Amino acid sequence: MPNLARPYGLRRFALPWLMLDAALPSRCFSCRTRLGSTQALGACRGCWMSLSPALEVTPIPVGGATVTSAVHYDELARRYLLRAKFGRRRELFEPMGAMILAAFRSVPFRPSCIVPVPSHPWMTWSRGFTPSREIARVVSRSTGVPMRALLYRRWFPWKSFKRLNRSARRTLAARAFGHLPGLHGQSVLLIDDLMTSGNTLAECVRLCSQAGANEIHGLVWAKAVF
Q1: Which of 29, 34, 177, 224 has CA atoms 20 to 30 A from the CA of 156?
Q2: Residue (of 77, 79, 89) closest to 127 by Cα position
Q3: Omega of the bond prior to 157 within 30 degrees of 0, cis?
Q4: pTM over 0.85
Q5: 27 contact partners, CB below 8 Å, separation of at least 6
Q6: Fold of the CATH domain 51-223
């Protein structure tokens, strides 16, 4: 777990902030306790420090690929992810990217490019951002490995993966994604915010392999039990 105290604003603020907090107290979006003068991005220090590092490597049954997750996906991590994605608080992806970066540095694989897993175009339009790209930018900026958006999600089929069983997810994933030129000969690091069944990442690995990528691995912020 990276030290969040310095890079993400866990610091004591000046007197005007204390006066404003006394008049209009704010609460941690996760535990709902009152935020004092030490907080970061709307969450208290306790919640930040309670995010559980859980470096876990999961094999993907396509081309010998693996996916490494950075944190344990418990109720606390779920609140953070929902806040970032559906609360449109994209600034939360910066510390999430730092956590993924710590996981990346523990893995021997060194890619030639970073490819974010695409969201549905409607979700990207309605939110104004793609979660995987926000995280991938942090990793790319810190490592110098270029980020390349070489995978895309089709508008149709117009279905969500969330309420589908494993078999239906696999079928939908095979129809939902496509790739652009530029993957041939590349060592690809796929980045996403969350892995559930693994079918989305497996399909992205398959597409990269078909496009001529030499080696493909994945990195996610959290892995959920599905």
Answers
A1: 224
A2: 89
A3: yes
A4: no
A5: 33, 34, 35
A6: Rossmann fold (3.40.50)
